[in-house]
Amino acid sequence: DADVTQTPRNRITKTGKRIMLECSQTKGHDRMYWYRQDPGLGLRLIYYSFDVKDINKGEISDGYSVSRQAQAKFSLSLESAIPNQTALYFCATSDRTGLFNQPQHFGDGTRLSIL
Amino acid sequence: SQKIEQNSEALNIQEGKTATLTCNYTNYSPAYLQWYRQDPGRGPVFLLLIRENEKEKRKERLKVTFDTTLKQSLFHITASQPADSATYLCALLYGNNRLAFGKGNQVVVIP
Question: Nearest-CA distance from B42 to chain A in Å?
């Protein structure tokens, strides 16, 4: 089983719909992240959470919200989806140990298309 | 503005040769730099981390260098194999343990 699981893997929806992407992890990591990846733009950070009570905006948080339901679960919501939110979305985790030099572990992504 | 630059053109290389990728950055002062591999349809996978006070790091056929004066990291794959074909991302640690990623550089190893 994957250590970082994202659901759904693919989603097609219409403009204006509310969408939730879910991420769960079995790595026991405190830190979780949401990124989007667009062709030619690379990975960009949407939100991150260093523990259940700590939520922080990343560089492109407008139009998104998150919920950290438990140490192992971090969900991303699009309250009213728009076509330019069509992208590949990744969840990642990292360990707190050593503070600043921990690698991030990624799920396999959710491909989201908004028509 | 802050930038991380990786070559947008794919690197085509013959099997057995050394592939060298470049990551240049501006307006960052990272204490750490990481390299990831990404295969189509998959999430990035961590490969190597190098600290600012380290000149070079090796892992099997992979080698990374980090020059904070030039603001550049080089990533080498020696004795390349077709299985090394993928996109390679550099990432800089900044702020409160956040990573800023380059756009990635595709490598195609030709048998």
Answer: 5
